[in-house]
Amino acid sequence: MKNKSTEDYLKKIFGLSRKIDKVTTSAIADSMNISSASVTDMIKKLSELDFLSYTPYQGVRLTKKGEKLALKVIRRHRLLELFLVEALHFSWDKVHEEADRLEHVISDDFEHGIDKYLGMPKYDPHGDPIPTLDGEIEEVDYHKLAEMEAGDTCQIIRVTDSQRLLQLMQKIDVGLNSTLVVKEKEIFDGSIVVKINGKKEHFLSREVASNIFVKKAGKTWH
């Protein structure tokens, strides 16, 4: 039972396991917008096939077999996103759904061809690490922009793959590797004003700033 549904579940569980300590059936159901009953049925099937283990009240964990397949799908997805941007000139807010469809049908040869064409890249267009052929994935050290304080200088290294967020970032002309200086931070709601690449200043809500990830460069006071 290696099909689109299996791959989608394993990819989702892997992603959730990187964000929360306990991957429950309800967490999976909420993230996939399906019923808990459907998730429970699928978990039983995947457990029987040794893709995951499930302990009541303890959550779901991928087995080595399940993690290997999840990382293979994630690798294909992120390579496809970068290929769509670099070769076909898609905007970064348009590639997720296309990659979702294609990741299940391309062959190993096609995957290797894309990888070679792109120069064996390490990151996708949103700054997420691309798993290696051996199933290794880099642990990227970053902070949320929302955690920065007034006077901090930082560089964007990753953004959440949200279409609305990406469209907003395009609108204000900010992207990966952009340098930001936090000019103001509102104590009440955590909203900030940033100067982008030494040019324009923009207001960002806490929600937006919580979905932009940066590495800190130091303090800049003006």
Oligomer: single chain
What is the global morphology?
A: globular
* Total beta strand runs: 8
In which order are the strands of the major sheet placed?
3-8-4-5-6-7
Supply the number of helical segments: 8
What kind of sheet is the major sheet?
6 strands, antiparallel
Q: Can you give the helix content as a percent range?
A: 40-55%
Low-confidence stretches: none
Q: State mean pLDDT (0 to 100 scale).
A: 93
Query: What separation lies between the terminal Cα atoms?
Result: 60 Å
* Class by SSE composition: alpha+beta
User: What is the chain-wise order of helices and strands?
Assistant: HHHEEHHHEEHEEEHE
Q: Compute the gyration radius: what is it?
A: 19 Å
Tell me what portion of residues adopts beta-strand conformation.
15-25%
Features:
two-stranded antiparallel ribbon; 8 strands; six-stranded antiparallel sheet; single chain; globular; 222 residues; alpha+beta; 40% helix; 8 helices
Topology, element by element:
Blueprint: H1 4-17, H2 25-32, H3 36-48, E1 52-55, E2 59-62, H4 64-86, H5 95-102, H6 108-117, E3 143-144, E4 152-159, H7 163-171, E5 179-185, E6 192-196, E7 201-204, H8 206-209, E8 212-219
Antiparallel strand pairs: 1-2, 3-8, 4-5, 4-8, 5-6, 6-7
Helix pairs in contact: 1-2, 1-4, 2-3, 4-5
Summarize the structure.
The protein is an alpha+beta fold and 222 residues long.
Q: Could you characterize what this model shows?
A:
The model has no long low-confidence stretch (mean pLDDT 93). The protein has a 6-stranded antiparallel β-sheet. Strands 1-2 form a two-stranded antiparallel ribbon. Strand 1 (52-55) and strand 2 form a beta hairpin. It has 8 helices and 8 strands. The protein is globular. It is α+β, with helices and mostly antiparallel strands. The chain starts with a helix and ends with a strand. The relative contact order is 0.10.
